[in-house]
Amino acid sequence: MNSLTWEQTDELLNRLGPSARVYLVGAGGCGMSALGHLLLDLGCWVGGSDLVMNESIQQLRFRGADIEAGHDAERVAAAEPNLVVYSSAIVKDNPELKAALDRGIPVVRRAVLLAALLHRKSGICVAGMHGKTTTSAMLAYALRQLEADPSFAIGAQVPQLEPHAHFVNAADRHGANLFVIETDESDGTLGQFSPDYSIILNVDEEHLDYFADLQAVCAEFERFAKQTRKLIVYCSDEAPLRELLSANYRAVAYGFGPEAAYRIKFGEHGCNGKGSEFEIWLDNEKFGTFAISLIGEKNVSNAAAVIALLHQLGYSAREIAGALLGFHGAARRQQEVFRDERFRIFDDYGHHPAEIEATLRAMHGLGPRRLLVAFQPHRFTRTRQLLKQFARCFKGADLLWVTDIYSASEAEIPGVSSEKLVQAIRQESQAVEYAATLDELRRAVRTAMQPGDLVLFLGAGDITNVAHQMAAELNHSPVRLKEQIFSKITRRISDTTILRKNEPMARRTTLRVGGPADFYVEPSSEDDLAQVLRFCSEEDLPFMILGRGSNLLVKDGGVRGVVISLSQPCFSEFKIEGSRIICGAGVRLKAVAVEAKRHGLAGLEFLEGIPGSVGGALRMNAGAMGSWFFDVVESIRFMDYSGQVYERRAREVHVEYRGCPLLKNHIALGAVLLGQEAPKEAVAERMNGFSQKRWKSQPAAPSAGCIFKNTTFVPAGKLIDELGLKGTRIGGAVVSDVHGNFIINEGNATATDVLKLIELIKQRAKAARGIDLETEVEIIGE
Q1: For all residues of the chain together, what is the average pLDDT?
Q2: Minimal CA–CA distance to 592: which of 610, 580, 600, 604?
Q3: Residue 28: inside a domain, yes or no?
Q4: pTM
Q5: 1 pLDDT higher than 60
Q6: Do residue 632 and residue 763 come from a single domain?
Q7: Is residue 686 part of a domain?
Q8: Checking CA distances to 87, which of 9, 36, 358, 683 falls within 20 to 30 Å?
Q9: Which of 182, 403, 202, 178 is closest to 298 using CA atoms?
Q10: Residue 456, domain member (yes or no)
């Protein structure tokens, strides 16, 4: 196929200027979409096509590019382009490419057009078999941080460089003439580039569908080095590169070994879960200490390449260290797509044995966790040529799955398959499972995952979709949503407010049963309480107020939403002024009774036996010994769900048997109680009488208080006694022998036990007496 040279391409674009119309065949690839952004920056009209729409195309369309799905020869004619660009992924009989040739429209390879644009600038090419994307992205990011305003074209999406290619037209600003390019050696186009500066990371037995052998690969890189005009930065840890470049006077080396001019030494913390810290030594003197957020020796080595080049461009160690610190990597290069307290999931482009080994070593730097690896081989030719290396490169995986080969438009090669690779891996004494499809792979990995696992999806094909699909599923799982809500609530409240996840309600109820609450909050102020209530309203999150947990039965599945307990000191303030007792909602009723006795205030003695708080007693209009709580209430303070606070006289509040309707949709903050002055001895005597009566008539074991409301015919306890149900047991729940209306927990009861016992009593009452018992205890949860 006859296509333009870079010189012809440059002349054409210069002649046409902003009026140029360029059509991209296969516009969605990372390299092609990068070209699209560069051409849009130059003011050109950009059109094109790809088989499917993706994020890269959407970014181009957002900027005005006319990209459509599917390849159609008539579209080329309608677009009337001056130039048609194609990549090595486009087959020769592509209908759009054929239409352009038939019409005499100039066509050019992607790399050739990129080389033409590079020659307009002071080019920096990053080359090598592995690590190009990360290194070129890191370099472009650092130059931006150093205010050098570079042009760049990166071979992957980079969140911190959106879009992943940019062409700076102005050349009169400091550094604005630099152009960082990730160069591709896979199709023999490396020789198109003649940069001022180059970084050569490594050479390897790769792309053997194009190159005859490693010697041919080295020859290609040797030619590229000769075309670099000013400076070559290379890794001296790579033996082939040492042989090629150590004698080149325009070359400077970096690496861990003694041959490197810029020598790497790990710092005190080395590589850890938060990143990597290392030193660079230059001529036996420490040049500087550097930290990056990426992990693994290979990323440290790539960073050293960037440091060496930036220093050669005149930047100081301090400037470089600051410029590198915030870089977080490129898409699909150890990209963490999900993280919570259970799992971490990574998506990585690694598809060569050397890349896979390096990535697995880096993953182990994240700590002593199980590493689950899912791999999609890329190309039949690579799988055939490197089968032995692939069989040995997964030693760091605790669990391994291999799925079918991603062909990348290659024809299938008989006898080359993922099943054969699986057999080769097993011959190396490593366990591995074969998953024929990506759906099977996702299900197998998800089934095997356990809390604490690292999960790594590897491959240059569409296995990335599995990683992101699993991340999306986990992000929308109840556990993940809970994490997000917890984080949001934390940001709304002060540090003194207590916030917990999955708080067992058995700890918070007098019956000592019940599953966990999603969120448990003890506000430290009325302002924080208001914040929590507003948050629940905004997020449509259910909530409930918990007193001291009496008169409450929480089911074993727990409580969804937020449980709020007003038990911090601000809600437990207590003072006596004359015959008035001013108390917060969190004050224990027993404490009210004791203080009233100490101050000679009668009328509150009945509270001594109620195991609850003032707030709960207000809401339930708690009663005992023939008295009701609102009998002694003068006024109440309460809050609505928007956080507004009110006060109301007790006579203005409607109350009923075992309830206060107002407080079903408002929250009690406190009350003023009214006692009657009396001799302390008389108050004490009456309280002791109540106490003795209670201990004789109520069980001491954990309970929720009275389970059923009294009926109009007979007290519930008397009815249960007459039915002969005292002592009836289900699991650890027992009908009390002391009082039939109490169900006690003998230590190992579940909420299910209690509920079954409640249902049994109701059935017996209905069958024997025709009485429908109604529960007084509040039953909540799942």
Answers
A1: 88
A2: 604
A3: yes
A4: 0.63
A5: no
A6: no
A7: yes
A8: 358
A9: 202
A10: yes
